[in-house]
Amino acid sequence: MALGLQTETKSAGDILPIIKYSAQSGDFVRVDRFQTADGTWDKEEQELAFPMEFIMDLGNIEVGWISFEGGGPSFEMAKLGEPMPERPTPKHNQGFRVKIANKELGLREFSHQAKTVVRVMDALHTEFEGLQLKNKGKVPVVQITGTERVLSKSPKGDKVYKAPIWKITKWVDYEFDAKDEGGTPEAEPVQEEVGVDDPLFD
User: Fold this and answer.
1) What share of the chain is helix, strand, coil (3-state, %, to 5)?
2) Cβ 162 vs Cβ 188: under 8 Å
3) Domain that residue 113 falls in
4) Phi and psi of 193, rounded to 5°?
5) DSSP symbol at 38
6) Total domain count for the chain?
7) Does residue 200 sit within a domain?
8) Peptide bond into 155 cis (omega under 30)
9) How far apart are alpha carbons 25 and 165 in whole angstroms?
10) CB–CB of 94/64 below 8 Å?
11) Cα distance between residue 168 and residue 194, in whole Å
């Protein structure tokens, strides 16, 4: 089974758009990259409001090592259950990467390395595993309603962070239209959903 590691360099136009989260402010932000007239790439950021809902591909979540040093993200990841990649540098910290989607934002990636966020993702994935057998062939809809204050004690003093408050609200069947000529296949819900209208998923 493949480890899910990237071995080829991609252009900015091939990179999946992201949602980022600040454990300091508690803000979720969509990041949209676009190509300027001179051919270079730029980005626009927009804060997202609570509550929000996404399909989350917890069955294919990746874990590994993440660094944001040096002006850009560096990932060494493997699908959960596969051998953990070696730590590339001391500046890489353990983290996760998962695909999320809804109709408004399309298909995106969400990743984090902060312990505050990793802990709540660990709990969410445990919930996912406990319900997975009863919802075989379906994907979970995760609702994010806000954040909670987390106090972190250290020798350098106390620090306050914010962790997402999220939960699985629904499991949904999807059928992809093989005749769709668009670039991203559109998933049609077999059952009625709450808050996620005809989302996209890969």
Assistant:
1) 15, 45, 40
2) no
3) 14-189
4) -110, 165
5) T
6) 1
7) no
8) no
9) 14
10) yes
11) 11
pLDDT of residue 155: 85
Q: Which two tokens stand for residue 183?
A: 């670039």
Strand segments, DSSP code E, in the chain are: 18-21, 28-35, 41-47, 52-56, 62-67, 74-79, 93-102, 106-112, 139-152, 159-172, 174-176, 187-189
**What whole-number distance in Å separates Cα of residue 41 and Cα of residue 121?**
31
List, in order, residues 6 or more apart from 49 with CB less than 8 Å away: none
Is residue 124 classed as helix, strand or coil in its secondary structure? helix
What pTM was computed for the model?
Answer: 0.78
Is 202 inside any structural domain? no
Could you identify the residue written with the tokens 């910290």? 93
Confidence at residue 174, expressed as pLDDT on a 0 to 100 scale: 59
C-alpha distances out from residue 187 to 22, 119, 126, 164, 175, Å: 30, 30, 26, 26, 6
Pick from 71, 76, 78, 81: which is nearest to 93 by CA? 76
Structure tokens at 177: 């239209």
Question: Would 52 be classed as within a structural domain?
Answer: yes
Q: Mean pLDDT per segment of 10 residues, for the chain of length 202 residues?
A: 38 72 97 92 95 94 92 91 95 95 91 96 97 93 97 89 98 52 33 32 32
Q: What's the pLDDT score for residue 70?
A: 75
User: Domain for residue 20, yes or no?
Assistant: yes
CA distance 172 to 184: 19
